[in-house]
Fold:
Amino acid sequence: MSELISREAYVKRFDRFLDEKKMRKTPERFAILKRILSFQSHFTIESLMQSMEEDSFHVSRATLYNTIQLLVEAQLVRRHVFEGLQVQYEKAGATPHSHLICTSCGKVKEVRDANFISYMNARKFTAFTTDFYSLYVYGTCSTCARKMKKRKALNS
Amino acid sequence: MSELISREAYVKRFDRFLDEKKMRKTPERFAILKRILSFQSHFTIESLMQSMEEDSFHVSRATLYNTIQLLVEAQLVRRHVFEGLQVQYEKAGATPHSHLICTSCGKVKEVRDANFISYMNARKFTAFTTDFYSLYVYGTCSTCARKMKKRKALNS
DNA sequence: ATGTATGCAAACCATTTGCAATGAC
DNA sequence: GTCATTGCAAATGGTTTGCATACAT
Structure:
């Protein structure tokens, strides 16, 4: 989805986060963040690792997991576990979006929903302070629906 | 959350599901479903297993996983993977609800939200047919917020 | 200089799988 | 009687951990 927060803003926020936590600003941490920012959409640990390698910046799996966790804590990255799929990550953009997950082919589509966003912005829960939220919608995409229809027609 | 679908309705639906799939109606499958129906709220594979054992009905882990998967496919059970917590299940009731997850203590609260439900009922997505959806709201519960405040006060 | 962060390989653990025995149909 | 389902134990695979080395502060 589009990127309303600038690259620099992410880096600055991570920098501040590390300051607050009194953690070190290693090249690995910023290299990983920058690589993540270059992704247009969802990614997995595996694709991130591969992408880093292609970029000739080697990091260990352990460091990748460590750093991703930091970024999730800093709320710069979101972690998603969709039913039946491997864990996916995405940078936390300025524009929240819902996820449509096709239970047949596993494709995940992002949908911006202004009405829903403004509803959630106004929504207060008793005895609970919201940080962020995820709406996962499971169903069937039109491509798979078409295929199923065809298969059914053949069987009958 | 409350149970607007009767015990018998669940069993009947599972029965029909097994018919359609031409699968066998083993005592294990129904014993597991019945045990699940007795839960008031979320449960894990582990707590389910334990509960079965207490009930003196032994099933293997493999069968538990198999059956749970069937029940999820039949949409009689929902599977939830909340950030930082172990996988949780719940019976799929007639009343959808959102989940408030405290990122501090991990407690999950269920919230019924009539406005949101009617919004989602009316909501159509282009090129996508909705089966079900999950809204996960992450934040801090009031208990944890209070503790944090106290800790902060002590440190300064 | 100090102690945090990294890399590597081993450990972990929830879930899956293979296979022989059971029992639903 | 057949073959799907079960139980058990072994295998799997994504993630975490332990420890020695490197390096941010």
Remarks:
- Chain A has two domains: 1-94, 96-156.
- The longest helix of chain A spans residues 7-20.
